[in-house]
């Protein structure tokens, strides 16, 4: 898989700064979280207004008015599959096999089923079904490739999750975040999903910004697992820059430096610390190796 740790995309200077947080934050928080906490390893399957990790990454990548991701972004497809695996892990459905006495590396260890109960989300349940029904356990790297359809083995193409972006956009439309339109692109028509409720996206952007600025704790294990995952997977999906674009130049530089500090960590060592979710760190490693 294409590693993306070589360098973060640097912004163009003289980008006009703007205050995108015009709605009362308490109201936006209520809409985003729906009064629920999906953090940590607890399993909450309501999908009323709470956004999943993959929905958050897609929302960061969508152009607000146009309603589609950049045509040049070839990273978000695999990034969303990584989000799905982390979401399953955070909901207690999958885990890595034990490292053993020889301390196998994260990418050498197999993904095993921990709990086969449905999550109540179609994409998550489809991925969970594939993991449950596979003949032999596979590692994280392989599962990202299978779910993305990036395999030379025709017998494994059945594991591909199809139309992921469109299905996530439909979820976000049902939650009132996006709307659905048809746009003509000269030779073809395309369904697009412009942002209809900017307050939720603004809140998401502010959450990402605050995690590396106002609420920076310089320790990923003291950060919410979902926020850490969002930073890593937004970077892997090449949409993290969108969250930092509204910042002034000084804050932008600080934010990017702190993201770089996270990306440069020894992921194997971090995964061995107490209270970690090893699937998370294995997914990070798959994209940053």
From TrEMBL:
Gene3D superfamilies in alphabetical order: yeast vps74-n-term truncation variant domain like
The UniProt similarity line reads: Belongs to the GOLPH3/VPS74 family.
User: Which GO CC terms are listed, alphabetically?
Assistant: cytosol; Golgi cisterna; Golgi membrane; trans-Golgi network
Task: Name its GO BP terms in alphabetical order.
Answer: Golgi organization; Golgi to plasma membrane protein transport; Golgi vesicle budding; retrograde vesicle-mediated transport, Golgi to endoplasmic reticulum
Q: Lineage of the source organism?
A: Eukaryota, Metazoa, Ecdysozoa, Arthropoda, Crustacea
Q: Any idea what this protein is called?
A: Golgi phosphoprotein 3
> Where in the cell does this protein reside?
Golgi apparatus membrane
Coiled-coil regions, chain positions = none
To which species is this protein native?
A: Tigriopus californicus
Q: Which UniProt keywords apply?
A: Golgi apparatus, Lipid-binding, Membrane
Pfam families per the UniProt record, alphabetical: GPP34
Q: Which is one GO molecular function term here?
A: phosphatidylinositol-4-phosphate binding
Q: Does the keyword Lipid biosynthesis apply?
A: no
Membrane topology summary = Peripheral membrane protein
């Amino acid at each position: 898989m294409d590693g993306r740790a070589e360098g973060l995309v640097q912004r163009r200077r003289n980008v006009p700064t703007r205050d995108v947080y015009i709605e009362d934050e308490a109201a936006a928080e209520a809409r985003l979280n729906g009064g629920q906490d999906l953090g940590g390893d607890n399993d909450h399957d309501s999908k009323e207004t709470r956004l999943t990790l993959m929905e958050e990454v897609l929302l960061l990548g969508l152009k607000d008015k146009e309603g589609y991701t950049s045509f040049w972004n070839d990273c978000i497809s695999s990034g969303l599959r990584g989000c799905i695996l982390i979401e399953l892990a955070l909901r207690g459905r999958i885990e890595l096999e034990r490292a053993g006495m020889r301390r196998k590396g994260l990418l050498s260890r197999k993904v095993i089923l921990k709990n086969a109960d449905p999550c109540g989300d179609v994409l998550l349940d489809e991925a969970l079904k594939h993991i449950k029904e596979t003949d032999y356990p596979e590692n994280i790297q392989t599962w990202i490739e299978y779910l993305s359809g990036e395999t030379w083995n025709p017998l494994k193409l059945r594991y591909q999750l199809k139309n992921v972006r469109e299905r996530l956009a439909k979820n976000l439309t049902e939650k009132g975040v996006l709307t659905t339109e048809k746009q003509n692109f000269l030779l073809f028509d395309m369904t697009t999903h412009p942002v209809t409720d900017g307050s939720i996206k603004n809140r998401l952007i502010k959450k990402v910004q605050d995690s590396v600025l106002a609420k920076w704790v310089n320790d990923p294990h003291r950060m919410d697992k979902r926020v850490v995952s969002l930073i890593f997977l937004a970077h892997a999906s090449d949409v993290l820059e969108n969250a930092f674009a509204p910042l002034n130049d000084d804050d932008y530089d600080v934010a990017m430096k702190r993201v770089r500090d996270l990306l440069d960590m020894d992921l194997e060592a971090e995964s061995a610390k107490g209270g970690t979710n090893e699937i998370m760190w294995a997914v990070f490693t798959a994209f940053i190796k």
